[in-house]
Amino acid sequence: MKKSQHKPLPSCLTPGVNEAGCDEAGRGCLAGPVYAAAVILPPDYSNPLLNDSKQLSEHNRYLLRDDIQAKAIAWAVGIVTPEEIDRINILNASILAMHRALDALKVTPGAVVVDGNRFKPWRDIAWTTVVKGDGKLANIAAASILAKTYRDDEMKRLHDLYPQYAWDINKGYPTKAHRQAIRQHGPTPHHRTTFRLLPPDQLTLDL
Q1: Alpha helix ranges (H) inside the chain
Q2: What CATH class has 19-150?
């Protein structure tokens, strides 16, 4: 196994506290739910592969998922459906998915650290945001990997039901092929109706 060459990430922002790292996956997709994960790592957790999930191969993401789940103090995943996304908007849905992940933790964290720059208070727990935190802190990187892999699993499952959209490859993101499939076959119940599924010049079909 080839080891990552990046500098090892510190396990958390607040040493001595059971700090939960949070991140989401699927925010920019046209279809499928948004997933989030919350992970509390032990202070001595280390894995040379650990990094922002977007910087990892699919193979290494799944290797890391197994390692994170085996060694984390606690971890959980939260899901928000396309229907909920359309009702409350994607920003609120992403935060709600994080809250659901935090609610599902078997250990209540003493602090929460979130990738990005937007969050809403969860219970009465101290929290902070870290821009590009999935490349800076191990607990956020771990959350990004769990959110990404569990969402990918769901999109592969949905691909079996709707193979014409190639969700096993594009995972619901707005690729040219995905949009062409929407143009040809129309949207599914798993598409987000409040998103621009087609560019303005493709909103009408050729008759």
Answers
A1: 58-71, 82-88, 90-104, 138-161, 167-170, 176-185
A2: alpha beta
State the residue for tokens 């802190």.
137
**3-class secondary-structure state, position 63:** helix
Statement: residue 1 has pLDDT above 80: no
For 63-83, the pLDDT digits (tens) are 999 999 999 999 999 999 999
Cβ neighbours of residue 183 closer than 8 Å, sequence gap 6 or more: 198, 202, 205
Buried b (16+ CB within 10 A) or exposed e, 15-37: eeebbbbbbbbbeebbbbbbbbb
Cα–Cα distance, 63 to 49 (Å, whole number): 9
How far apart, in whole angstroms, are the C-alpha atoms of residue 124 and residue 143? 21
User: Which amino acid would we find at residue 148?
Assistant: K
Could you read off the pLDDT of 22-56 as tens digits, one per residue?
Answer: 999 999 999 999 999 999 999 999 999 998 888 89
* Residue in the structure block whose two tokens are 């949905």: 158
Residues 167 and 172: their CA atoms lie apart, in Å, by 5
What confidence score (pLDDT) does residue 7 get? 74
Domain ranges of the chain: 19-150, 163-202
Would you say how long the chain is, in residues?
A: 207
Report the phi/psi class of residue 32: left, alpha or beta, with left for phi > 0 and alpha for psi in -120 to 50: left
What is the value of pTM for the model shown? 0.92
